[in-house]
Design brief:
Layout: H1 3-18, H2 23-41, H3 46-61, H4 66-87, H5 89-114, H6 123-136, H7 164-186, H8 192-211, H9 235-249, H10 255-282, H11 285-295, H12 297-302, H13 307-333, H14 343-356, H15 361-392, E1 395-396, E2 401-402, H16 416-430, H17 439-461
Antiparallel strand pairs: 1-2
Amino acid sequence: MGIKAILKSKSQMIWKWINTGKIPYYFSAAYLVLTSLWVYFSPLSLVAFLLLLSAAGVIYAFPVKAWYKVLLGVILGLVVMPIVGARNIFYLEVIFQIALFSALALGLNVMTGSAGLLDMGYVAYYAIGAYLWGFFGSQQMFLLHSIPGSAPATNAFFLAPNTFYIFLFLGLAAAAIVGILLGLPVLRVRGDYLAIVTLGFGEVIRVLANNLDKPLNLTNGPQGITPIQRPTLPEPLLNFLNSIMTPLVGKPTSLGDFYNLFFYLLSVIIIIAVIYVVTRLDDSKVGRAWAAIKDDELAASSMGVRVVLYKLAAFSVGASFAGIMGVVFAASRTFISPETFNFMQSIGVLSMVILGGLGSIPGVILGATVVVVLNIQVLQGISLSLSSLRQSGTVIPIINFALKDLSAQIDPAKYQKMLFGIILVMMMIYRPNGLIPAKRRKREQLAEKVEIPDTLAESGEA
């Protein structure tokens, strides 16, 4: 028996032991406590934070009761993350980005993973939600006849800041309607042609945002819209939270920190709602119709499935998730510009879906987490470490090489797209169904494995 087989056998034995009796309950709780304490006492440790993020995967993967998973998830999301995030506010930004792109990836997964509709311009719905609140939640209504960049900053805002909550639903509805309007003419085509049409739609929205600064200044052109209002936070609530957070965090929490915490919690609430909706749709008549259309559109139509209606439903549902997150993004950043909604954003969201697993809800969330963490933390962290080494003046004694001579061209952040491309290629070769394949796809693979030997046996007998 080779070393590889021995290691595999031992790992299987350990995994089986961990999943026995009450051990999963103790292990998942202990893992959460230990990683939380590590991040709390080492708030700048990248390894500790990555292990804390993996605690969510441990809670999901271990065979414990649903109520126990919910309890640990609430502790992680509503207790641990706010505290460690207030100690290092960048952590809340990472979680916010994960929730934001998870919602976008789940929306695209409805279109591509569930219904088989390849949308290459998905970021357009994201832009619609962002510009909707960007226009009405800023001073832009009073700048329609002004030249971009020349208007005074003392203009009044058009709407009260707390109308943001209404625009969450308006952004959802606006993106859903645009999804239906786009779907009506383009659903006559399929496959690569559909991808090309939707790609064009995404570019049209970006170009419109870039050029609608004349004759009426609707979008402020390439300069973008700023400042965009945030909803108000009640001062008594802030004082109460500060009295609780200060002893735990070790320092007073600023208004900016509270806004980061607010948008983090809002994004978590939205992603929970999105997961609930997608799960219920996947297990419903609508989800089964989407699966039938994805497998064989002609066969589904002949069996009575209203193909056009269900395709429009996929477009509207997927677009609505992007619309609501666009509103949240505009308010959290207080600035939007056309460059934020370029074609590469759509490719990035699509790569999250493919990496996680088409049609898999936990897989898509894992894909979004991996891409976001690699993008804004791991690669950037490695680049910062290399920069620190260059400035240290250290010389490697054996080869007499000064670290200050390290080329800036080796910084991994510069090769971000290449690295993601390599990851996708490797995924297609070794794990084409994603990190966490959809349950329906697992059942299909199991059926194929059972069917192939039977077929071979029958051919041998013949």
